[in-house]
Amino acid sequence: MTNQEGADDEGSLLLDDQLCFALYAAQRAVTSAYRPLLDELGLTYPQYLVLLVLWERGEITVKELAGALRLDYGTVSPLLKRLEGAGLVRRERAANDERSVLVACTDRAEELRERAARVPGALLAATELDSTEVGRLRAELWALAERAEAAADRAR
Fold this sequence. Notes:
Layout (H helix, E strand, L loop, with lengths): L18 H21 L5 H13 L2 E2 H8 L3 H13 L3 E5 L7 E5 L1 H10 L2 H9 L3 H25 L1
Antiparallel strand pairs: 1-3, 2-3
Helix pairs in contact: 1-6, 3-4
């Protein structure tokens, strides 16, 4: 049972009143909606995100990739290892800085890009969202992320 609309949720410990839980449930549902679309490509959702960054930016360092995905190196590294094993990315040490590792798509990943271009539209159709709704939701979520990151920084 949730509080009535307009009720004060400030001190509520009801699960359905928690912003974090609503975001968690939405994230899981959206990821599940992606699953059949990505299964056709042979990708997991995190692998798809890695490829999106590489298709957008081209060859970049692992550090830049991790930053774009808002993940730590320890999370990105196993993803890259699996993508490399599947022949979708290549990693190599940067010539100008041996400490940096560069990541880029292979020809196989570039071929997959054309099929992946259908995923966003298919997700909109599956969720019955229109582009205006998606734009509004995305803007609100990015604003929330920014505010939450600022709050976390202040708490440190």
